[in-house]
Structure formats: structure tokens, C-alpha cells
User: Fold this.
Amino acid sequence: MHATLKSYIIGFVLSLLFTLTAFSLVMYPGFFHASYGVIVPGIIILAVIQLLVQLIFFMHLATEDGPRWKLAALVSTIGIILIVVVGSIWIMNHLNYNMMASPADMNTYIQSQDGF
Amino acid sequence: MIHFIFGTLTWDALPHVWYTIGATASIAVGGLFFAGLLTYYKRWTWLWKEWLTSTDPKKIGIMYIVMASLMFFRGALDAAMIWLQQSISVGSSQGYLDATHFQQIFTAHGDIMVFFVAMGFFFGLMNLIIPLQIGSRDLAFPFLNSLGFWLYVAGAVFINMFFVIGGEFAASGWLSLPPLSEIMYSPGTGVDYWVWSLQISGLGTLLGGINFLVTILKMRVKGMTLMKMPMFTWTSLCSMALVIVSFPVLTATTALLWLDRFFGMHFFTTTAGGNPMMYVNLIWMWGHPEVYILVIPAFGIFSEVVATFSGKRIFGYVSMVCATICITLLSFLVWLHHFFTMGAGADVDAFFGIMTGVIAIPTAVQIFNWIATMFRGRIRFTTPMMYFMGFVSLFTFGGMAGVLLSVPGADFELHNSLFLVAHFHTMIVSAALFGIFAGITYWCPKVMGFKLNEKIGRWAFWLWIVGFFASFVPLYILGFMGATRRLDHYAATTGYQPFFIIAGIGICIIAAAALVQVWQAIVSIKERKQNLDTTGDPWDGRTLEWSTRSPVPFYNFAVLPEVDSRDAFWKAKKAGKSAEPVKYEDVELPKNTAMAIYLSGFVFLFGFAAVWHIGWLAAVGLVGSVACVIVRSFDEHTEYILPAADIEKMEKMA
Amino acid sequence: MEHATDDKHIFGFWVYLMTDLIIFGVLFAAYAVLQGNTFGGPSAYDLFSLPTALANTLVLLVSSFTCGLAMLAAQSKKVNQTIAWLAVTLVLGATFLTLELTEFSRFIAMGDSWQRSAFLSSFFTLVGTHGLHIAVGLLWIVVAIVQLKLRGLTPAVTSKIVRFTLFWHFLDIVWIFIFTMVYLMGHAI
Assistant:
């Protein structure tokens, strides 16, 4: 473990910055002249950047000794999680569209989804 | 007050039907017999000290294999009962099982075979062989190894618990799909037993997965880079990586089902916004990698067997490694083929159909490599080699059925038919089961010090393969005829019955095969002095495990070897390396511990309390488990030193 | 020998953290799929207070920082400083849990418990599981402080502290995605 005070301070300040930005984007969209189409990708990108910041500055992922097994394990895990989450959303969207129970639900669903 | 102490337990939960009474009686008789033997031969302390509290992976491996064999007996009995019902329940006859009981049997059959037989045997073989193959003395985390085993035992006890207390098991299929498995349609304790036996044993499996992964990555002997590892180690690595990423999905999904049942949540209910299809999606995200977890180590065993008994190194080592890794990665991209018919639509089905077809390619690469290994080799048709050849033919046959099923249009006809049932049994039996038989026969001299009887072993093989074809080819045909799975009754006009009868002949042959294997074990033990492995290398093997004595001393290697190539042991043999004067060193080994048993006991109590809604017992289980972990964390004397002088003495005596 | 053992334990713990991450992944997937299923009850937009979420987030972020300071103290072999920063982390973690449980009780009191709808089931489970992990972390701090007092910063104890800090940072990382996908997304939509 190669922890330094500098890394924790940088990590903390950056995380604080990204957190406050993300909250402001949603709480005060007018300030940023941000439409919905910008806010959602915006907060996701901010989250991913903060993830990287914390991995590097708090968990010292970049300074692993020897073969980078921790990094490999993390990348694999993130890959699997993407498959789990994105795969579920994709599949369940299709399933819900085709298999929705009552006609009333179906109408609402198709209307809200603008058809596929 | 009664409710506080006993939760939802009532007198009704005690055995009062023929099969719960029968099973409880058998368990009691068996248990008393075993206890009696231990008392008569005064072996209680020996059992506790030498085996139960051991952290030696060789001991733990043998215990896994013993447990898996016991569970195999139960799973096979379930299979026989299923077959019997399906053979006689035609037309006016309703068979001998009522529908609910029949459903419980096929549910238990699936869960026991997958979770407790296959996983148990493979964890056993890995414990026994992986440290030897990588030149290590132990796994990375000996305590976790013991804990993983005892959690497995706790799960195995749990899945049999309902016979004694509860009286019903889940009747919702081996994966307990909602809405049937929800509290509204399965109000009893059956599904709860199902959930907790999987959670408890699943935790053990996950710990084992982490243990083996870290062991293989971090504890290889000096000089053994990844591309110099034996194939069994490679496949175990990939399989354990799959365990690590997929078992959490099982844990989370079954936990959500339990939250629905226990806390009235609505993840998968048919009301309040729940979506049962989400469960099917999630559970198969685990379920598909699981089947690869079972077959990939078998591929590794066969690689070892083919190379040794063809007298040649494995053909295309690099492509074998690549193929194994490809299969591992792809196994996470095909899961929807288990529910093509649920309604995701053409584009989704097409994607997963194509991916399923693609995953057949690296598997085919492996098969060609194995056959190429045999080509121009000096082949010895020993029992393990026979199992390999049975595997190749059977797996290809069943694999082609899989390719057919991967076409969504065809699957709409064949989904959940007996064709599917025949397909997956073909894959698991030919790969996992034959792999286990081959592995046990191959490594028996290393572990036990003597070879198994070859002749009887070959009889068992032939009975298995003929019996298997006889049992399952009728099922392929029945599937084409339209027979669905899990039928507890059908009309005579379907014409199914004759095929069930033929399958029954097959089952009798398989039963004979199993009995022959038991006989083989008995004969081999009686004749062990004639079949002693005196050299440590009875098959002229290629990998490091054959460089040790047989049976392996508890410290594995007197001096840790160094390697500089693949099949280093083979190279050293051929180069005729003379015995160099050895310098012994002190060795640190883990002590025995009972903490894993206590911890698993508390986890078991928690599970039991969860099933029967007993608050105070759940608290006891939870607090006890946490206390065990904390107490263990304070223990800094978990290892002992084995002095070099002692090792030298033992080596000279051998 | 010590260093090699330590490395094994840290890596093994990291692998366990990966499995925990996947459990959260499944809970996120369930939330993503079911968040719209409000069954006539309140939605994320109706229920969640962003100021509360921000307070929670900041408390946890600061605790991740103080946890880092504890790590530094352990690295410098300063036992009392390590204990001090761990204690601060404990207090902050307990504050986080209190805020969260207060929010939960508010919902339950209004009749919006986990039994109301699939959306609420998945919300309570996702955020509740995170809270459960925080609670385990708090217990761990207590045990760690006891071991520090009894044994000091031996290699074994230090290794355990390192593993704790990995655990705590990991929980803050999961929280990044909880506050983004649950609270912020709920109000953005």
C-alpha cells in the first residue's frame, strides 16, 4: 500500500467537487441551462469519473506491486456488472413490451415507449 | 409464548408420511450405525483430530468426495423415483406419487446433483490435486478452505432437513421460478428450505472459489508462469473465476425471492408491480455460467488423462488455454437461451442464439486438440482413457443437440421438452460425471497409495455408457414426439410409455454400473497391497503431482521444486536428472481448527430460524456466527513450524 | 514471508470485494428494471429529498477521507492516531446510518414501506443492503480498535486495518452510484 496524504486530499477535493456538481445539475438545472437530455448523461459521467478518482486516490489501484491482478479482477467485475445491468434493462424492456399483462397496461406502455 | 419459542413450527412438521418417516428412519439408522462403529473402534478423537478439524486440503478433499458420494446416492434415488412414476402413470393409473410429491422429487434431484454432487466432487479433486500441480503446500487460506467445506456440509444437511422437520421440500423446480415459488402459491416451508440450503452452500462455494483463485495466482512454485501451468490448473482457475463472478448473482437473486416471501416485498410477485420474468432473467445469468463451472474442470481432467495415456504432451497447449478462456468469457453472454420462449422477441433471441452457437466453437477446438493429442501416440486404454473416449463421443452427440436448441425457432418447439432434458443430462454426465470418474481413477494412486482395480473399472465404464445411451436416447425421441418435462401423468394415446420402459432398462444398467463401482472400491481396498504405488508415478505422468510419494505426505513436498518449462517433471525424467543432495528447511503449516465447524453450525441455526420464523434462534445464529469470526480474528497462533529435521526423518523412512 | 502473506490476504479480500460488488450490481439491475413499477404509490420523484441525500453523501465522503487518514497513521506506525481517526470514521458512519434510518422511518410512517410496490421493495433493498454493510463496517472498527489497543500495530493487525480501509472506501464507491442512480436520477426524470 502506497498511501500518501497528498493522494487522499486530492481524492477528497475532487470527489467533493464532482458530488456537488452532480447535485447542482439536478437541483438547479436552470443555472447550467441544462435540459433533461444533458443532465442524465452528465450525472452518470460525473459518477464514473468520481469512481476512477476514488479508485486511484483512495484505493491506490495504480500503485499495485507485481502483476496487476487487482486491476484485472476489477475490470472483469465491472464488465460483468455492465452485462448484468445493461443486459437486464435491454431484455426486460423487450419482455415487458411483448408480455405486458392487461390491455390497459399495454396501451400505456406502448404509448410511453413510442413503440419500438 | 409458544409462538415466540417455536415460530411457525408445529407438531405437523414432524414426519408423518411414508417417505418422511422412511427417510428419517434411514438417516437415524445410518447415523447410529456410523456412531456405533466409531464408538466400537474408539475412533471419535481420531475422527475429530485427523479429519474433521483438519485444514489439510488432502483431507478436506477426501471429505468432499465422501459427502458428494453420499449425496449422489440420494440424487440417484430421486432419479429412479421420477422414472418409475413416469413409466407407470399412464391413462387410468396415477402412479404411486401424488403430483406435489413428484414435483418435490424432481426439484431435489436437480439441486442435489448440481450443488452437492458435481460441485462436491470437483472441489474435492481440486483440493487434492491443485496444490500438488503448482508446487504448493496448501491453499492460500486454509481456514477458509475448512469453512467452505463445513458450509457445504451444512447446506447438504439443510437440503435433507425437511425429511425430519417440515415434511415438504420446494415443489417449484430446481431453480424455483416465481410466481410458483412465491409465498402466495408455495405457502409452506419447502421453498424456504430451498433458499437457505442454496445460500449456505453457495457461501461455501464462493469462499472456495476465492481460495482457489488466489492460490493459483499467488502460490505457484518458482518458475511456473501462467503458460507453464498444467491444464487441470488452468481450467480450475477459469472455473473458479466463473464461480466468483456468478455465485453472487445466485446469492442476490434467491435473497430477493426470500425477501418477497419473508418480508412481503414485491420483486417477483404477480401484483404490486413485481415482475416474475426478472427472476428468470437473473437466475439464468447465474445458471448458465454454473454449467460451465461444472464442465470446464472436467475438460482439464481429460486434458491430463489424454496426454498421459497417449504418451504425448497435449496438442496445442496455447490454443487450449485460449479456448478455455474464450469459453469462460462467452459463458456470460448466452444466458437467455434458457428462456427464448419467454417473449423477449426476435432481435434479443437472435443475439443470444448466435452467441450460443459461437460458444460451441472453442469447445470444438478443444475436442480437435484432444484427438490430435491421441494421434500417433502410444495409447494405453486404461479406465480413465475409456472415460475420456466415452466423453468425446457422448459430449459431441449431446453438443449437437445443443446447437439445434440454440436456434430460437427450433427451441420454440423443444423448450422444456424431454429433448432438452436429454441434452443437458448428456452434457453433464459425459463431461462432469465421466470427468470425475476419470479423475478419481487417475489420481487415486497419488492420494490413497494404491491403484483401483482396472478390470472392474472398465466394466463400470461400459455399463455407464451403454446404460446412459439406453436411458437418454428414448428421451431425445420423446422430446421430438412432444413430451414435455416434469410430466407426472400422460394419456396412453401419446405413445410415450414404451420409451419410458426402454429408458428404465437403461436406468437399471446405470444402477448396475454404480454398484459395480462400489464393488470396485471394496475390492481395491482389499487388494491394495497388490496394487501399491511404490514410485509415486504409476502412470508415467507429466505434471508435478507425480514427483511426490504416494500417498502424499501431509507437507506435500519435502523441498519445494523449481520449474522452467511445461511438463517440467516429464522433462526431468527424460533428462534422467539424478537425485541431488537435498537441503531441508523448516516449513510453516496451518494448525487444525474447530472454528469452521462452529461457524457453520451457527449459520445453519440462522437458516433454520429463518425458515421457521424463530426470532430468538436467528439472533443466536447471527450473533454466534459474528462472534466466531471475531474470536478467530484474535487468534494469532494459527500455524505451527514443522522442523526440517522431522521432514528429513520422514523422507528417509519412506 | 510476512510480506508475501500480507499480499495474499489483501488480494483475497479484494476478490471478495468484487463479489460484493456484483451483489450490488444485481440489486442495481433490479432497481433499474423495477423503479417505474410504483403500483399507484409514490415514485422516486415524490419521495426522495435531495438535501438529505446530499447530507448523507457528504458525511460518507468525509468518513472515507478520515478512513484514509487512519490508513496513513497505520502506515506510519502511530497507534493512537490510527485509533483516533478510526473513531472519527465510526462517528461519521453512525451519523450516516442515523440519517438513513430516519429517512426510512419517515417513508414507513407514511405507509410507503417495502411492501407497497416493487419500486419501494427494490429501493429499500438496495439502499438497505448498503446500510447493512456500513453497520458491519462500524462493528469492524470497534473490533479493530480493541485489537490495536491490545496488540498495537503488528503486521497482522496492520493487514486487517488495510483490509478495513478497502472495505470502507468500497462502500463509498457503491454510494456514488446509489446517490446518482437512485436519488439524482429520481429527480432528474
Q: What stands out?
A: Strands of chain B lie at 587-590, 639-642. Residues 99-134 of chain B form the longest helix (36 residues).
